């Protein structure tokens, strides 16, 4: 077979997600493992979302609402928007793909921070764009350097706030200065997948209130703070004209009926949201204290995950931790060969992580 695959597609390195917990247990012959590798909500899904899913099971023979009417209306009310400013997707990745499809032609340029969420790069490269990768300044996003890379051919800039995998944020002042430097034809996409966890009072939050006078898109997700990662539902806030273009290219029925029902219910589950945020903040403080006790270098975060310098090849430590039944994420592929990333777990999971880390490092 001789497939005629374009060179820019062959050049893409596929996104490699963390393996499911069950697969790793089978592969390594371990049981009762804990997973702190994928930035998931350790509390599970919103209870109200689970109830809504139960009510929706009997209607699975029907197609979902292709327009996402009720969910879009609720998101608009929560964010003080018009429904015309909201697009829902099969996770935020779906919105990213729509934006690229609507705005990018081969040879256009897209600016992305590096390292950050890999789907910005993958989606742009798949569309034939020239991707301008701008290194972080330390662990933070270098907005000045990103603005410097803009040309007449630049169509999109992706900003991740808080940034994955570093957990750093940008300020409103820095962002406003950045936007002031950009020409009007450049659409800026701010991915706020983890914004609910940010404590820094100066942290940029583009969706509250939404600024719809500029070519700006805010991405939000139900995967993290709301505990619905398995349902894949997210949304974008943007000017109505741009939203209209995305509706022209999005797949019909792109958000399934159970995801819509669960997301609707989750937006009403304020108690669960606050409990999720409080668990992360409390867990971070306890983990920081334990890592201080062990004398390890770590990097404080504005998200539900953070980086730890383990002082040895991260891939090797990943394997050692697996054999202790603790799944973490090696950051070698992100350019940090001695760092791991973990997300906050339940209190007992955090304790088990510290014990396993202490064991494998012989501390």
A few lines on this structure:
By secondary structure, this protein is α/β, with parallel strands linked by helices. Helices cover 38% and strands 16% of the residues. It folds into two domains: 118 residues, Aspartate Aminotransferase, domain 1 (Alpha-Beta Complex), CATH 3.90.1150.10; 222 residues, Type I PLP-dependent aspartate aminotransferase-like (Major domain) (Aspartate Aminotransferase, domain 2, 3-Layer(aba) Sandwich), CATH 3.40.640.10.
State the secondary-structure class. Answer: alpha/beta
Unreliable stretches covering 5 or more consecutive residues: none
Q: How much strand?
A: 15-25%
Distance between the termini: 54 Å
Major pleated sheet: 7 strands, mixed
Instruction: State the order of secondary-structure elements, H for helix, E for strand.
Output: HHEHHEHEHEHEHEEEHHHEEHEEEH
- Annotated CATH topology of the largest domain: Aspartate Aminotransferase, domain 2
Q: How would you describe this structure in keywords?
A:
about 40% helix, globular, alpha/beta, four-stranded antiparallel sheet, Aspartate Aminotransferase, domain 1, about 375 residues, 13 helices, Aspartate Aminotransferase, domain 2, seven-stranded mixed sheet
């Amino acid at each position: 077979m001789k497939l005629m695959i374009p060179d820019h597609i062959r050049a893409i390195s596929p996104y490699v997600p963390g393996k499911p917990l069950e697969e790793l247990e089978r592969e390594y012959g371990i049981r009762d493992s804990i997973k702190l590798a994928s930035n998931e909500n350790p509390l599970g899904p919103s209870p109200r979302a689970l109830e809504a899913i139960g009510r929706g099971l009997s209607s699975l023979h029907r197609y979902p609402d292709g327009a996402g009417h009720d969910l879009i209306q609720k998101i608009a009310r929560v964010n003080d928007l018009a429904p015309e400013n909201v697009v829902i997707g099969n996770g935020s990745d779906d919105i990213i793909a729509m934006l690229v499809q609507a705005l990018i032609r081969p040879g256009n340029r897209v600016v992305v921070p590096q390292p950050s969420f890999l789907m910005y790069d993958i989606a742009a490269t798949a569309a034939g764009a020239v991707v301008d990768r701008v290194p972080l300044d330390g662990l933070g996003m270098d907005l000045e350097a990103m603005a410097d890379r803009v040309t007449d051919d630049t169509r999109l800039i992706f900003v991740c706030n808080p940034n994955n995998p570093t957990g750093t944020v940008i300020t409103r002042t820095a962002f406003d200065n950045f936007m002031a430097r950009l020409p009007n034809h450049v659409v800026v996409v701010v991915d706020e997948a983890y914004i609910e966890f940010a404590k820094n009072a100066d942290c940029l939050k583009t969706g509250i209130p939404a600024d719809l006078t500029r070519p700006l898109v805010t991405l939000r997700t139900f995967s993290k703070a709301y505990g619905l990662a398995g349902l894949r539902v997210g949304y974008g806030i943007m000017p109505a004209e741009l939203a209209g273009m995305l509706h022209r290219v999005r797949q019909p029925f792109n958000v399934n009926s159970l995801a819509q029902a669960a997301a609707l219910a989750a937006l009403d589950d304020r108690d669960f949201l606050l409990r999720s945020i409080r668990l992360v903040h409390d867990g971070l403080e306890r983990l920081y204290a334990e890592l201080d006790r062990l004398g390890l270098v770590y990097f404080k975060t504005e998200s539900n995950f953070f980086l730890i310098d383990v002082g040895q090849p991260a891939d090797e430590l990943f394997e050692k931790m697996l054999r202790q039944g603790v799944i973490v994420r090696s950051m070698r592929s992100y350019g940090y060969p001695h760092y791991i990333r973990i997300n906050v777990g339940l209190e007992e999971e955090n304790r088990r992580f510290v014990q396993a880390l202490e064991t494998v490092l012989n501390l």
